[in-house]
Amino acid sequence: MATLTLPDSPAPAPSAPSTRSPSLMENEKVRSAARRLGVVAFAAFLAYLVILPIVRLQATAFEDGGAGFSRAFGLDRIGQILKYTVGLAIGSVVIAMVLGTALAWAASRLPRRLEFLRILPILPIVIPAVAAIAGWAFLLSPRPGYLNAALRNLPWWSHLEEGPVDVYSIQWIVIITGFSLSSFVYMFVSSGFSNINSEMLEAAQVSGMPEWKVFFRVTLPLLRPTLIYGGGVALLLGLGQFTGPLLLGTNSGVGVLTTEMYFQISDSPAQFATAAALGSPLLFAGIAVVFAQKAMLGNQKRFVTHGGKAFRSQGRPSRVGAALIVIFSLLSTVLPILALAFVSLSRYWRGSIDLSTLTVDNFRTVFSTTAVPSAITNSLVFSLGSMAIALPLGFVAASLIVRGVRYPALRVLVDVLVSMPLGVPAVIFGAAFLLTYTEGPIVLYGTPWVVILVYVTLMLPFATRMQLSTMLALGDSYLEASRVSGAGFLRTNTRILLPLMRGSLGGTAALIFVLLTHEFTASLLVRASKTQVMGTVLFDAWSNGSYPLVAAVALIMTGVTAVGVAAAMLVGGADSLSKM
């Protein structure tokens, strides 16, 4: 048998000597170790900020053999409280997802001359939640509500002495909450619409696919990240609803877990163990939603449809879409603001409007005391300080999540840490920070720092996610080109990435400022006499029944927020509000 003889393999070429000197290699090792240490320190700081207060609060529920759980779930109304909590969350999410997605579609179909209407669905966020709730109460209270009084003039309800709408019922609390959450869903979904490459939609249409099929078979799959994220955010916000149930549901017996937690902490002495036990279902549900989001999204880069080129999503202009946006804005923004304006200019709140009795005495009263001016100053200082801290933290976290392939474990840990505040209702963070910083080793209660820390913690998800979505949309081409040209990490970020993210940073700053200037839930729990903010002053006026003063403070809060948004738009560009 013939044998096959293989030629001898050529000897391997001698390896080229390293062109790097030992000192350069040593410096590179030092820099690599320093970077890793910096990432570890950053993750540790986030863990201290987010995890420690929650752990300390939850630990109280297990003290004395779990006495907190026994007291919490032994309450007579606990079954009804759980029912209202779940019903409020699910009902408001359904309304928000349908309405928010419809508004985003309508905004993508606006005629060119009506594109300014894109901003209108975002405006409900500018109105502080506590002010919006007050406005709805002034409109739809059974007897003195302006809108109810107008409806009773119609033949169908002329026989009624009050109603026909009861704003204090669970059904209307769900509807009002769904309206407010629609703006959040709209922000995420409209951002998803703008990031869909129009060439993909045009290709589907050219192939003969009808527009409705394009929407369900092309557009919706590409919107999957924003729909999942927006729906998750809406669900978490629905589970953690506090303002509506507190202001509208307390007197009518509509209680949820968050309001019951507040009442337990407001007792003397404060029942932290019971409050922590009541918050446990919300905490576990929130964490489950966050992880479910991540599991459903997977690798988000597979949804990127462009590499940095500018484009605009195309669609046939629709007058129906413009009408939908106008009607939504009328109901969600204009009517509550008008109700606040009339009550703030009246001596008494009543169902009729008499223009001859309007007065500005309520505003004189508000500014003649030190409480409101001091609260305005505190709100501005705390919000700006928290924004200045949260923005760079969010940038670092987003950069690590997108490009930290060298640190896979720390990358996942940071992603979880910055997402957790979305899964934890603000009332839990408020209670946790109150408990943590009224005891050693660090006592901050009564100082501005406890408010700023809880604000920064609550804003971490927004500061990170909005910058993260922009980094993903930009892709890697610009950064790779910068590195190939010899630019270092710092120069690439300051000269390339940050200018490209200017609009996103402005929108993020605007959103953070808006959310913080009218933050109410956590502020109510961690406040002290010297750290009152506008929301807590408004709540005190509401509790005292001083409704004209409530309306005046609510309008002032809205005005302060609007000025902050305008300033953010000047810094981040005219389209910053649309990128919120």
UniProtKB/TrEMBL annotation:
Region of interest (Disordered), ranges:
1-25
Q: Does the keyword Membrane apply?
A: yes
| Keyword annotations from UniProtKB, A to Z | Cell inner membrane, Cell membrane, Membrane, Transmembrane, Transmembrane helix, Transport
Q: What CDD domains does this protein's entry cite?
A: TM_PBP2 (cd06261)
Which taxonomic lineage does the organism of this UniProt entry have? Answer: Bacteria, Bacillati, Actinomycetota, Actinomycetes, Mycobacteriales
TM spans, by residue?
37-55, 84-107, 119-139, 170-189, 227-250, 270-292, 322-345, 380-402, 414-436, 442-463, 505-526, 546-571
Q: In its keyword annotation, does this UniProt entry include Transmembrane helix?
A: yes
Cross-referenced InterPro entries, in alphabetical order? MetI-like (IPR000515), MetI-like_sf (IPR035906)
Which membrane topology term applies here? Multi-pass membrane protein
Query: What is the similarity comment for this entry?
Result: Belongs to the binding-protein-dependent transport system permease family.
Source superkingdom: Bacteria
Where in the cell is the protein located? Cell inner membrane; Cell membrane
User: Could you tell me which residue ranges the ABC transmembrane type-1 domain spans?
Assistant: 82-293, 376-568
Name the UniProt record assigns to this protein = ABC transporter permease
